[in-house]
Specification:
By secondary structure, this protein is α/β, with parallel strands linked by helices. About 30% of the residues lie in helices and about 10% in strands. It has 3 domains: about 220 residues, 3-Layer(aba) Sandwich (Rossmann fold), CATH 3.40.50; about 80 residues, no CATH class; about 290 residues, Alpha-Beta Horseshoe (pyruvate-formate lyase- activating enzyme). The protein has a 10-stranded mixed β-sheet, with helices on both faces. It has a 3-stranded parallel β-sheet with strand order 19-20-21. The chain starts with about 35 loop residues before the first helix and ends in a 10-residue tail after the last helix.
Length: about 725
Amino acid sequence: MMQTLNIPADKKIFSYPKYWAECFGIAPQLPMNRTEMMALGWDSCDIILVTGDAYVDLPSFGMAVIGRVLEAQGFRVGIIAQPDWKSADAFRTLGKPNLFFGITAGNMDSMVNRYTSERRIRSDDAYTPGDIGGKRPDRAVTVYAQRCREAFKGVPIIIGGIEASLRRIAHYDYWSDKVRRSVLMDSKANILVYGNGERQIIEIAQRLANGEPIKAMSHIRGTAVMCSGVPDGWLEKDATDIDTEIVVIEHPNPYAMHAQEGTCDEKKSHREREYIAPISILDISQQRDHTVIRMPSYETVSEDAVLYAHASRLLHLETNPGNARALIQRHGERDVWINPPPVPLSTAELDAVFDLPYSRLPHMAYGDIHAKETRIPAYEMIKTSVNIMRGCFGGCTFCSITEHEGRIIQSRSEESILREVEEIRDKTPKFTGNISDLGGPTANMYRLKCKSEKIEAACRKPSCVFPDICPNLNTDHNPLIKLYRKARSLKGIKRVFIASGLRYDLAVQSPAYIKELVTHHVGGYLKIAPEHTEAKPLSKMMKPGIGSYDNFKKLFEKYSQEAGKKQYLIPYFIAAHPGTSDEDMLKLALWLKKNNYKADQVQAFLPSPMSTASAMYRSGRNPLKKISRKQEKYAEKVFIPRRKKQRDLHKAFLRYHDPKNWGILREALKDMGRTDLIGNGDHQLIPDTHVQQQKKNHPRSSFRTQHSRNNKAGKHHKPIRRK
């Protein structure tokens, strides 16, 4: 059985000897120009970080975290934020770095940041002063890397952040509608860091500082590098084809050890088959650290959509740090080597990261942070929010959190979180006493994890909560309840809101949590994301059935009434997700009308790089199951609403109440043989003519009216993180 990954004391992120430059002390803010460097007494930077975001010295901004973490190691770190990429001049601003350039597109993928799900260019950018779009290039990581090489040849280049992380292998790119190479190939970087990068970037910096060549750093967990084949001493497993007739070995069922305790449901347990040669179970455990899985090549997955789905499945089977093996994928004459995921940070390490001396302000170079032309919307949105954990074990197929942060929850200590709340109170200009969020990727996964470390280290399930909540998952919300109570009792704190996406199927396991949340932490509206009502699309999303939402809604309304408050749920839904038919969207529209919900905004599915749902979109197959061409039971095809007309129709169903959509809906209902839903009756979806509806009063539900007022008043500080 695989053992839990433990990091030796001398490898914890703050255990390394400090670099000699620590004598310069801590910078109030990391410098962005030579004048600021001179004021700190620096003649050069050891590391220069290039980012597509404005520099905000706050732990919610990835580049600030990496910069402060490296500073804590003793390195002199400078930042080049949103440089003019049209020449290399802006990349020479701080001079030549002594160790390396670190490059990220920012907190968002640059393509997601720039384009809508309909491929339209956005005019705004929440991570830019003045909310101005166009301040970063498309595919920013690649462009920045090219300019850094032009500025200073021979300097090592390390790429990271969400854009690099989600493009580490050959991936489907929605904007060009083709499979693109790994960004490591396009950027020609030395190392790609994926996931939360503190552990990896510290090791790279320390080894470079000790004189080790960058080419020697090929097997750091949480990184990808280019190579020319499998090195000696490694066992290569060929998984380049789907139906190759090879002997396979069943992976040991991690739940079987507790069968005598009644924790193993034989009907639900699934023994995952791996593409490995016939060796013993003991050999698998012993050789895992030196085993690499050969994925289908870039050229192959570019041409064969089914093999693309197969490659996606292989990647997602190797995401648990406790049992993941290295992956290798051929690109032309070279290989991309992807090391296993990084070991999650311990609570003590995570606390230390968040306890670093952030100024909690945008860089002083931006001037008045409250002026319209310099205001940074993302900072305004999260300046009074606290990130209490990392990771997500939900596994939603349309979401990229698991691919980036991993599914193992990393939680901060209660003390560290409360210290940050007090810092917000004491350091934030014009603080009103309200904390806008205590959350993270998911609001209510704080301290939730597998009951057994051995099971956690061996498990290969993509989700701990689908199709049902795993019996080995601890769902105790009491630590979160205690945290909420302590946070709102701090001096100077009036209200603590919860704005992160809520996992309601977990919340109903703890009615006491829902009562606490509803009574004290909801400002009239709670955003929640059932995403759909029908079983087929929900199964492709790996989301719970609508029954879980109904159960949560009952408790929400019950405790709101007991608290004497009028509060409302704001449900969010996705249009045009893989596996969604026109009939599914019609049923969802009827559900919305029955419940008197009128959505003001609609989100259409956007295939983000490397997500499972994107693999469905690209291939029309379901990589949640084994992919096969020969075996019918493994050849599940997924319907894809790909055409623009159909995507528009699915969005129109979500906004059935909008007169602009009645034409397309009327035509669709006729084609579907559902003319019975056209008319002015309460049971009908849309009126039979536009004119008749205009003559009628069109009352808004109290939900929509109040929601619109609150939006105009700016009461919602943070968009939902869809869970």
